[in-house]
Amino acid sequence: MFTVRVTAQPPVPVPTGTAGRAPGWADAGLVSGEAVELDVRAARLGSRVLALLLDIVVQAALTLLLAILLSALATQLLPAGLVDGAFFQGLATVFLVFALVGYPVLFERFCHGRTPGKMAVGLRVVSADGGPVGLRQSLTRALVGVAVEWPGLVLPLLSWVAGVTVMLTDRRGRRLGDLVAGTMVVHTRTAQSWRPAPMIIPPLVGWAVTLDLTRLDDALALAVRQYLTRAHGLTEPSRTRLAQGLWSEVAAVTSPPPPRGVPEPLLLAAVLAERNRRGALRLRRTRAVTATLWPELHPVPQLTPAPQPTPASTATPESAPTSVRPSVPAARTGPPALG
């Protein structure tokens, strides 16, 4: 039996702008079983249209490939009286139903709510409560989409306008099929921009060079790097508390101790920068040894030297002017000729 004690706390203001995430970042409104709002963004019109265009290309390619294969097999295996125009019309109807209904249902069922187009864009279909999409929900989405959205068998132009209007006005960017089936489409990739780890400040360079980092493992170094690259999105006092906890772990496996009065994030940045510098130095030494032992693995590019202009004062023998005086004949070295 666990007892949870709940105390009243004043509301903490949520920062906005570049230092923190905007209130509309996690706009999907999904809440976990622990009553924690998930950091998930709802897919809007632009990304969903891009995924739809990619899916249309894949659907057309699969339909064409299946049509060619099945038509060839039907022509060879079935009697000639059965293969006529009506047979090919029925086969085309089956291919159309497979492309428009079977394609999204099968992929969403067996690929965790993702079609090839959604995989490329980074989208996924989930239930309205954040759970995995079911077979009935996928089938409902597909049928409603074919009927009133894409290709829109019922009043195509009017249904397209209605579908776009619903997506633009819905808070979660859902279309008509999502509203009927109780689903929504979310992003599986974060839009957080990559930030490099902070560099070491000059006053800590002398201390960082003397550090013993042999006991600093890769897992702890990765945790430090993740903190330094994401600290801008954290709020106080969580940011300072996390930095102090990480530095206590790093200080336990490194020596000598740092100068007093330096904030923990600067110390973590100095340790990480020194570790990266030593790793880059070892890599250069290894490459130099490899190039010495196996020069064929590191071919040196042959550069064609540019022609150097010849000074006018130093003329080559070919370009020297011929003298008026005849040259001296060469001396004989063999025996004299007999008369």
TrEMBL record:
One of its GO terms (cellular component) is membrane. The chain crosses the membrane at residues 49-74, 86-106. Its main location: membrane. InterPro entries: RDD. Keywords: Membrane, Transmembrane, Transmembrane helix. Residues 311-323 have a biased composition (Low complexity). Residues 299-339 are annotated as: Disordered. Residues 43-182 form the RDD domain. It is found in: Membrane. It is a multi-pass membrane protein. PANTHER family: SLR0254 PROTEIN. This is Uncharacterized membrane protein YckC, RDD family.
